[in-house]
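Record 1 of the preview.
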Amino acid sequence: MKLRVITGTLAGGLFVAVMAVGSVPFTLLSAAIAVICYMELAALKKLPLLSPGVLMGAFCVAGIVLGTLLPSEDAFGLLFIKLLAALVLLFVGTTVFSKNRFHFEQAAYLLMSVFYIGFSYHLLVHVRLSSFSLAFFVLVIIWAADSGAYFIGRRWGRHKLAPKISPKKTKEGAVGALFTALIAAVLFQFVLRDPIFPSWWLLLLVTLLIATFGQLGDLGESALKRYYGVKDSGNILPGHGGLLDRFDSLIFVLPILYLIGVIN
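->
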């Protein structure tokens, strides 16, 4: 527990500090984290990390995140389509020249990983470049929900939430996540004073969406790890596991916020 708290505090503090700087430093950090998360996904499937297919995907993930620095969304959209199209063709070509040692199912897994990780971290950088307050708000709500689920679940959890996917998660913890997220949102707004959203109702609604879908993203990664028989996605963060273990909620939440128009 102590190691988990210390690691989380130091890593979270460093991440927020670079986020506050923004611009190129935060974009580079986000691209690096995105590539590591992608590599952890590849490792879950036991794909060689230095194989051509995995490396091509890593290059595309970095390109998608760094593309945030392009002067317009139109320019990024064109880059995004070209990168994915090129990756599909390269993957198919690799299946031929590798004589199916790299096969279509692996290519599909990596392509989905590139899109899922790359697009989410692109959105993270995009939000930060548009509004530090909104980006920080999303992080605070996810961290508050995660902490609430963990501590309330440990203290009062009795009923399993998804025992076949994540045996330690409880329904009480899930409710606790929503409760602590709402408290964090109210405190955040009082401290900030300058409203992020035009009304309190919208603030609370977005908070509940972030806390709910954040837990779904966490469960989604747990399901993937259970399917491949892995406890943690990596060991880069002592007491926490891999970067994918720490950012799974954020990776899932950002596209949701984009789809409902919170992120433009």
